[in-house]
Request: fold
Amino acid sequence: MDTFEYLVQELRDRNIRLSHQRLKILEYISNNRIHPTVDKIYSQLQKEIPTLSKTTVYNTLNTLAEAGLVKVLRIEENEARYDVDTKNHGHFKCEACGEVYDFHIDMDSLLCDGLEGFKVEEKDVYFKGLCPNCR
Amino acid sequence: MDTFEYLVQELRDRNIRLSHQRLKILEYISNNRIHPTVDKIYSQLQKEIPTLSKTTVYNTLNTLAEAGLVKVLRIEENEARYDVDTKNHGHFKCEACGEVYDFHIDMDSLLCDGLEGFKVEEKDVYFKGLCPNCR
DNA sequence: GTTCCTGCAAAAGCTTTGCAGAAGA
DNA sequence: TCTTCTGCAAAGCTTTTGCAGGAAC
Reply:
């Protein structure tokens, strides 16, 4: 089962309605794993759905994030990016071209000190620098 | 030499003028290591400097960040926080009380895969969950 | 037939910009 | 004196909210 079908099933299970807009947004983020911004998703899908509004994109992504089906990335200073891959992994942002890359990370290997008594529920790792193309 | 004096010397070295407002902001963030927001810094210092404007707080923090003397934290969804400690360490945000805690971290222990050919210049680690008081 | 969703317009909140007067060196 | 900084007002951006019409079930 691919990601899109999995997400659709998850929506069904949670009684979240499968509107045309939601399905298209789900399809887009499943097939375009480029950590798109709201604006990117909106401008791409508007070609197919001319009546689409940015509000709906925001609403949908908030719904998906609350349901735990997408993860919100805050690697940009100003705008959010969205990731369908909710497994733990790192994000690298190239400061030259602005591209955001995934990389594998072993969270358990990370040695921390000073979190005794804390309940850690989420771990985000953001690296910045230059990607191979921009070096 | 304490942090405040060190920062003042750094400004002198870089020919950044030591205005009354800048010195007070430096003093505040040196003595209050609570990762304050612009609003926090502004409202606290306004008691001492009634004419202070938020624009100046923004200008100053941007200047300090460009000079590498403070680090901008983006652990909040909506607003930036500022940290005088520019050494590598992790930040934990309690999702109940909103407090941001520092913790020690050994970046070299972190096992990554897929960053061959990348030049990593900055590493940010953000954890979220519940702090001991809120559990 | 209900309930929930969409999309427009407006508002909210953080941050930046333009600029005249003030302060630092 | 010359340059830079301050602070007000206004603008710029992303994101949220209110609400009437429309779609999902």
About this structure: Chain A touches chain B at residues 72, 74-75, 77, 80, 90, 92, 95, 101-106, 109-115, 117-132, 135 (CB under 8 Å).
